[in-house]
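Query structure, 158 tokens:
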């Protein structure tokens, strides 16, 4: 299991947070101060999972974000998207998911891969993606490994 880590970077008026590991009861968000930030970017590429205690900690962090801030989420993994689809308020109202991974599965070599999907703007409620993709391992056809109507549900809210 990978220990939860936060790396912060301040660039101009942007507060960029790189999160990695598993979000759980040991995840300490208290070191993050978002009160004076106008633009906050969460890079979630390194998140490998989140449990119920982690969801509680995450929601508490989201509640500390000022309403006049703009929050962007980039490189959201399936673990994050699944929770956003189930938990009201997982992404705050003043946020936008700029990019997220879509899982694909190759039956030939039993390999799962993730392909990044980027949204151009907030009105982009229907992501551009393909039903199949070349497997990165064996180059055969990998198929989308989600139920689209359920997986993309978060786009209607965000």
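Result returned for the query:
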């Amino acid at each position: 299991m990978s220990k939860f880590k936060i790396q912060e970077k301040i660039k101009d008026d942007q507060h960029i947070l790189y999160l990695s590991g598993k979000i759980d009861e040991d995840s300490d968000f208290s070191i993050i101060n978002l009160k004076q930030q106008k633009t906050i970017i969460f890079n979630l590429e390194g998140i490998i999972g989140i449990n119920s205690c982690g969801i509680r900690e995450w929601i508490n962090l989201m509640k500390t974000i000022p309403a006049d801030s703009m929050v962007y989420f980039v490189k959201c993994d399936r673990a994050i998207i699944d929770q956003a689809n189930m938990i009201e308020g997982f992404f705050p109202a003043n946020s936008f998911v700029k990019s997220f991974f879509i899982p694909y599965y190759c039956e030939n070599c039993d390999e799962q891969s993730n392909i990044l999907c980027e949204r151009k703007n907030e009105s982009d409620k229907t992501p551009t993606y393909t039903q199949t993709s070349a497997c990165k391992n064996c180059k055969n056809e990998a198929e989308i490994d989600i139920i689209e109507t359920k997986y993309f549900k978060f786009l209607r809210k965000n």
